Amino acid sequence: MTQAVLGDDVYGEDPTVNQLEELAAKSIGKPAACLMPSGTMANLAALLVHVPRGGKVVVGNESDIYLYEAGGASVCGGIVYEPIPTQPDGNLALDDLAAVLPPDADDPQFALPGLICVENTHNRMGGQALSQEYLAELKRFATGHGLAVHMDGARIFNAAVATGVSADQIAAHADSIQFCLSKGLSAPIGSILAGEVAFIEKARRVRKMLGGGMRQAGVFAAAGLLALTSMVDRLADDHQLAAQLAEGLAEVDGIDIDPKAVTTNIVLFRVTADGLNDNQFLAAVQQRGLVMGEFGHGRIRAVTHRGLTSADVSAAVAIVADVVRETS
Fold it and tell me: Nearest-CA neighbor of 168 among 201, 160, 151?
């Protein structure tokens, strides 16, 4: 990062940013890409480009875009969110999608849908990767109804590593895609929005409007280059550690988890020990140096990453076992 060649990215003159965007577009199989400060801004820019003011975006009720991005599309773009049930595997059922389409597109009473958003891997569904068969069906459905598909692929490379399907093949089923250079790829900041050239040109204007125009952004684009060239294959290590964690937690009385449900780097479990609620559990493990998070529906989330070893995971299981034993 300290040795990056810099320029002014607002004018397209930062060579390190340009190199990253070219590599990112190639890696995801899209004609063009734009570096964004965050995944939230990248998703928001995509929605603002795809959907006109007063239009509707169909989202999963458990999706990051719907739950964790501060309603940005409504605030900034006058876009209506239409949440539908998220299936346990992260899919949005085609019947549910069909049910929210207006019966008459010419009736001025209805907000017209312009976009379907999917998430891959799916955070709230425990890091599940969507299948190629489902994504192909979804794209056919969307095309048949004149809708675009945006993929929140914050962890798209986790999906690729877990399924053995390349990231560009996965992204081929979406008109646009966002993915994070941070998270498992380990860069300190930054996300990529990718799609057709005309789409990305519009997204750059939206990025500027949202305050995301950056000057010498090559400082962190250099970290993004390292993320894409050196950190993708090692995601398999995170998945292996997550499996180790899940298997260890399954042996602890007072913890409810299905290790077979853990397929990438996200581990969801429930604390069932008597006399120990989630907040008490989280405070107790944090006092011992273990940080996890409450995740809704009575679940705890733990995420494995580059900073962990197998010994760390074993220590984490031991901490959980001690807390449960001492309080039950």
Answer: 160
Angle of the 310-327 helix axis to the 278-287 helix axis, nearest 10 = 130
Using a 10 angstrom Cβ sphere, with 0-12 exposed, 13-18 middle and 19 or more buried, the burial of residue 164 is exposed
Diameter of the chain by CA atoms? 64
Question: Are 60 and 92 contacting, i.e. CB atoms less than 8 angstroms apart?
Answer: yes
Judged on CB neighbours under 10 Å (0-12, 13-18, 19+), 142 is buried
Q: Fold for domain 9-230?
A: Aspartate Aminotransferase; domain 2 (3.40.640)
pTM of structure: 0.96
| All structural domains of the chain with their residue ranges | 9-230, 235-327
Please state the three-class secondary structure of 303-320 as a single string: ECCCCCCHHHHHHHHHHH
**Predicted confidence (pLDDT) per residue in 198-256, tens digit:** 999 999 999 999 999 999 999 999 999 999 999 999 999 999 999 999 999 999 999 99
At the fourth CATH level, the homologous superfamily of domain 235-327 is Aspartate Aminotransferase, domain 1 (3.90.1150.10)
Give tens-digit pLDDT for 252-307.
Answer: 999 999 999 999 999 999 999 998 999 999 999 999 999 999 998 999 999 999 99
Task: Note the pLDDT tens digit of each residue in 67-115.
Answer: 999 999 999 999 999 999 999 999 999 999 999 999 888 889 899 999 9
Residue 135 and residue 165 in contact, taking contact as beta carbons nearer than 8 Å: no
